[in-house]
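Input/output pair, single chain:
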Amino acid sequence: MGMLPLLIAGIAALAIVVITVGIAMSAGGGAVASRLERYASARESDAEGGEAAESAVVAGVSRIIERQDFTTRLAIDLGRADLKMKPAEFLILWAITPIGFVFVAFVLGFVIEGFRNPVALVVAFLVGLYAPRFYLNRRKAGRLKAFAAQLPDTITLLANSLRAGSSFLQGMELVTREARPPISEEFERVVREMQLGVALHPALNNLVRRVASEDLELMVTAIQIQSQVGGNLATVLDAIAHTIRERIRIMGEIQTLTAMQRYSGYVITLLPIGLAGLLFLISPTYISVMLENPPSLFGLPMGVVFFLVGLISMGIGYLFIRRIVDIKV
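Output:
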């Protein structure tokens, strides 16, 4: 087995580097685009106190993918996760991460022989391929959860500010000073947009698009309706805050009552996979019997067929459990 895994990892890393450099060098967006890029980079470096200019690789990848639909969705996800990265930077990191995981697994192979097996290197590559997106989704979900937990108190603060005679803009400025991130950061962006001339409704719609919270959308809808038909906005906000608090309380009770079922699904799904991986690392020959051919079915070793059938069955069971415990409020 020798140098074969290292050779495969080296070829994959070289391919990634060649593709990235090729994209950067072929993305000559014209003289106007070049001048705009230099101007944008200069403005950003002045604002941040003389930081280094954007690399040519990131600029090239940005120009290549800027017209793609997935770039827009990725930019929205990065904003919701509060990651100060451009889509091109995240995609470059996404391309490099699997190579890093393969390299780490190969180095660990000198300590644990199972990591030097080609199957382990393929698994490391797949894990590295999924890791950046998993981190992005986890960070986005955590930020949304923190925002939702702070929203009722923020709405109450806005209502009290309106009762005290302040305008809605002054109430949002109070939120930016008194609340904690992430809700203070998002409301601060709304205040800045309004100070730059954006009307209240478009600024609030931008907030809803950035955060993607049903409770926030309820609040914004109520504010927009009240601005058209009139009424006591403070009273409306108090009712919304009470509704959101009740929803959070009921969701907490549901999470508590279904905790055992949810974690049973995790254990039932991950325990066989984890046990198989541990046996593979400790004693590769114990698992390698599954790869012997014959016996075979549909051209695949019988052990691989059984393994795939088991994975599909566990996946179906996990989906059924998730559907049962996913109670909408």
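The longest helix spans residues 118-163. Residues 21-53 have pLDDT under 50 and may be disordered.
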